[in-house]
Amino acid sequence: MADENRIDKKSQQGEWSSRFAFILAATGSAVGLGNIWKFPYITGENGGGAFVLVYLLCVLLIGIPLMMAEIMLGRRSKENPVHTMELLTAEANADKNWHYLGWMGIAAGFLILSYYSVIAGWSTAYVFKAFFGSFSGASPSEVKALFDDFVASPMSLIFWHTVFMLATMIIVARGIEKGFEKSVGLLMPGLFALMILLVGYAMTTDGYFKGLDFLFKPDFSKLTADSVLVAMGQAFFSLSLGMGAIMCYGSYLPKDVSIAKASMIIAGADTVVALLAGIAIFPIVFSNGLEPNSGPGLVFETLPLAFGNMFGGWLFGVLFFIALVFAALSSSISLVEPAVAWLIENKGFSREKACLWSGLVAWVLGLGTVFSFNAWKNVKLFERNFFELIDYLTANLMLPIGGFCIAVFAGWIMKQEHSKEELDLPGEHLSFQVWKFLVSYIAPAAVFLVFLNVVGVL
Ligand code: TRP
Fold first, then answer.
1. DSSP assignment of 317-386
2. How far, in Å, CA of 274 to CA of 151, rounded?
3. Among candidates 164, 134, 187, which has minimal Cα distance to 303?
4. 178: which DSSP letter?
5. Which pLDDT score is estimated for 15?
6. Is 205 helix (H, G, I), strand (E, B) or coil?
7. What is the tally of helices (H) and strands (E) in the chain?
8. What is the pLDDT of residue 302?
9. Domain-located, residue 42
10. Does residue 318 belong to any structural domain of this protein?
């Protein structure tokens, strides 16, 4: 029965047209606001170098093995994450409760999407600010005032949040092949080129080396238990891991693609973009006497200074924010895809109806984030406002817990012959053994220890 279903679903969903298309889409999911907006500002808040080092270790030792595991699980079942867990637990004769993992993923996706869309809305608004010349010749205090005034207005944030959410839903409603591949393919290289350009500008500022020092000279005295958790959470967030997004993409992947190679390419590209964003932003911070720990507005208070003062800055500014919006779109798509796939496959919704409902729920939740930057700025629970709470809950708790479970499932529950077959790494081969070790021991233990450390047990 399950097998018949599989074949049906597969032809209904379609497959990626090539290895390249898959890598592009998965990189599109990974590279987004997480790299350009979030990585720099949390690096700034957590003291720089040591945080970056922990982040890089997490990507290498937890992120890449887990990405392989997610793609593998998705490809084996060819289903949405809830169904994937159901099918694969049946295949391994394991406990049924594993499918709650798929549910948590769908919930995490909604929660993340709700605030992601608000921040992506800021980026959309900044396309227009760049276009109307708001940055030209602006001073640091003017650029900061521009941002502060903007986020102080709930109406404008709601407007741009709505625009972005609609755009996401329209793309998802159009279906996998048509919707995803075209838009991602064009804008990723563009974003990359603009990042290089910004790094070039950063090199001309007198804060360049100070910026590099901040990013790459670890000062371990600045590292707290919580910042280690934040770094680990960011590795999950940036690589789109722990909630089934990459699992979902993996479900459309043809059998002949090497999962290990694809994962390394995706993680490599994602890491390079995050580091480039840091290298572009911190020199601007230091050469203008700004604070590295100024929070979620950091990108919006620094890069406009570069565009306002560099040659051709008007054009590059407009292009940069357009590319950023598209990078955000290719990520937000993957945040709802598991929910939409589930509504279609299990609840018999049409694609349009599934998109409409998912979009509406995430949009309403997003209002909480909108107000976190103005009316509810100081309404706090556990010392965090709504946005900070959702961010902490998802990136630092749900994704690592999801990742922990996926690692345990791939390492301990799934039959080894199946993982061997999917990964297509010969069993005796060192690379398979390394993967198996990382996914069975290192990744779960790391998540566990970091949690213990935060609650103060260690
Ligand atoms: N990785 C994306 C970014 O860096 C965000 C994202 C997309 C995501 N899909 C995800 C995060 C799934 C966690 C889980 O912007």
1. HHHHHHHHHHHHHHHHHHHHHHHHHHHHHHH---HHHHHHHHHHHHHHHHHHHHHHTTTTTT--BTTB-H
2. 24
3. 134
4. I
5. 66
6. coil
7. 24, 0
8. 96
9. yes
10. yes
Residue 125 CA to ligand 1 centre (angstroms): 21
If you write DSSP's letter for every residue of 421-450 in order, what string do you get? HHHT--TTSHHHHHHHHIIIIIHHHHHHHH
Instruction: Report how far ligand 1's centroid is from the alpha carbon of 109 (Å).
Output: 9
Nearest to 136 by CA among 322, 312, 324, 279: 312
349 CB-near residues (< 8 Å, 6+ apart): 343, 357
Per the domain annotation, does 7 fall within a domain?
yes
Minimal-distance CA residue to ligand 1 atom 10: 240
User: What's the total number of domains in the chain?
Assistant: 1
| Residue matched to tokens 């399950």 | 2
Exposure string of 287-325, with b = 16+ CB inside 10 Å and e = fewer, is bbebebebebbbbbbbbbbbbbbbeebbebbbbbbbbbb
Both tokens of residue 30?
């990974």
How far, in Å, CA of 339 to CA of 320, rounded? Answer: 30
pLDDT at 249: 86
The two tokens of residue 125 are 């608004």
Q: How many residues does the chain have?
A: 458
pTM score, two decimals?
0.93
Site of tokens 């030209």: 136
Looking at residue 180, its pLDDT comes to: 58
CB neighbours of 203 closer than 8 A, spacing ≥ 6? 283
Mean pLDDT by 10 residues, the chain (458 residues): 36 62 88 97 96 98 96 87 84 84 90 98 98 94 96 97 95 68 77 95 96 96 94 97 90 86 95 98 96 96 95 94 93 90 89 94 97 94 94 96 95 89 76 93 96 82
119 lines ligand 1 (CB under 6 A): no
Q: Using the atom order of ligand 1, give the atom closest to the CA of residue 33.
A: 15
Q: What is the CATH number of the domain that holds 106?
A: 1.10.4160.10
The pLDDT value recorded for residue 16 is 64
The domain of 201 spans 3-369
Residue 420 lies in a domain: no
Give yes or no for residue 335 CB within 6 A of ligand 1. Answer: yes
How far does residue 240's CA lie from ligand 1's centre (Å)?
4
User: Do 357 and 95 meet the contact criterion of CB atoms below 8 Å apart?
Assistant: no
